[in-house]
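Fill in residues.
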C-alpha cells in the first residue's frame, strides 16, 4: 500500500484516508494552519485572569468589626482598629470618612512602610441613641486597586425606659374600651413616673404604679370613637432622664 502525504503550512494534523491510485489506499496527514491569535491564546487568558481577579490588598486588619456595650448613663469606650502594611511598598491612608456625625476617627500614622502597623481610634458619641446601633467608617488608601476598607462599629445601648406598645388604637365600629400601655424603668436606681398628660381632651388617662420607680401601667380610655383623632401622651419622670429617652406614647381613633 502506498502512502501519500498531503500537507499545508502550520502545525498539527490528522490522518485521513485518501486514494493513491487505482485499487490502492493511502493515508494523508493534513496539517491545518494556526493563526497568530491561537498561538497567543495562553497569554491572552493570563491577561484576562489578571484583570478579572481582585488585586491583593496591602493592608491587613486585625478585625474590621467591633461591638461594645455601655450601660445607661455610661459613655462608650473608644473603638480601636489595628492594621498592618503586608505589602512590599509604602501605603498611605488618604481619607477616613465617618458614616455618622456621632463618630470621630483618629489615625495614629497615615503612611506605613512594609511591615509597619498603625491604629484607627474612633470616639462614638451615643447621645440620643438607644438599642442595637451600627455605624461605619470607610478608609481609603493610595493603593492602585481595591483601595477602600469598611470598618463597622456596633453598640448595645439599653433603653432607660421602655414603653409597650407605643400606640394603642380603636376603630369606629369598636367599643370605647380601656387599653393599657406598659412602662418599665431600666435604670440601676429607681425613677418615679409622677404623671402622664395628653395633648387632647378626648382621652382619659390613669397611671398605675405596679412597682414604684420600676414598673407602671397607663390605662387609656377614649371618651368617644365617632371622630378619628390622634393624641400624643407624655410621661413625666421625677428625675431627668438621659437625652434621647423616649417619653411619649400615642392613642388613636381610626
Amino acid at each position: 500500500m502506498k502512502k501519500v502525504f498531503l500537507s499545508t503550512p502550520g502545525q498539527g494534523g490528522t490522518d485521513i484516508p485518501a486514494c493513491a491510485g487505482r485499487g490502492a489506499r493511502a493515508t494523508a496527514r493534513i496539517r491545518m494552519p494556526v493563526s497568530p491569535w491561537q498561538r497567543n491564546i495562553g497569554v491572552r487568558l493570563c491577561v484576562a485572569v489578571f484583570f478579572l481577579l481582585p488585586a491583593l490588598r496591602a493592608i491587613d486588619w486585625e478585625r474590621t468589626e467591633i461591638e461594645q456595650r455601655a450601660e445607661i448613663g455610661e459613655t462608650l469606650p473608644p473603638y480601636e482598629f489595628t492594621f498592618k502594611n503586608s505589602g512590599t511598598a509604602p501605603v498611605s491612608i488618604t481619607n477616613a470618612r465617618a458614616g455618622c456625625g456621632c463618630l470621630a476617627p483618629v489615625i495614629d500614622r497615615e503612611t506605613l512602610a512594609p511591615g509597619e502597623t498603625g491604629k484607627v481610634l474612633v470616639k462614638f458619641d451615643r447621645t440620643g441613641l438607644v438599642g442595637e446601633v451600627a455605624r461605619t467608617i470607610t478608609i481609603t488608601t493610595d493603593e492602585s486597586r481595591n483601595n477602600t476598607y469598611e470598618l463597622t462599629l456596633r453598640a448595645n445601648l439599653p433603653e432607660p425606659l421602655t414603653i409597650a406598645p407605643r400606640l394603642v388604637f380603636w376603630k369606629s365600629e369598636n367599643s370605647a374600651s380601656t387599653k393599657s400601655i406598659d412602662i418599665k424603668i431600666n435604670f440601676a436606681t429607681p425613677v418615679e413616673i409622677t404623671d402622664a398628660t395628653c395633648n387632647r381632651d378626648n382621652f382619659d388617662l390613669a397611671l398605675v404604679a405596679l412597682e414604684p420607680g420600676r414598673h407602671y401601667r397607663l390605662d387609656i380610655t377614649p371618651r368617644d370613637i365617632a371622630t378619628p383623632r390622634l393624641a400624643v401622651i407624655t410621661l413625666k419622670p421625677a428625675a431627668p432622664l438621659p437625652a434621647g429617652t423616649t417619653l411619649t406614647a400615642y392613642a388613636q381613633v381610626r
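The chain has three domains: 14-52, 59-157, 161-253.
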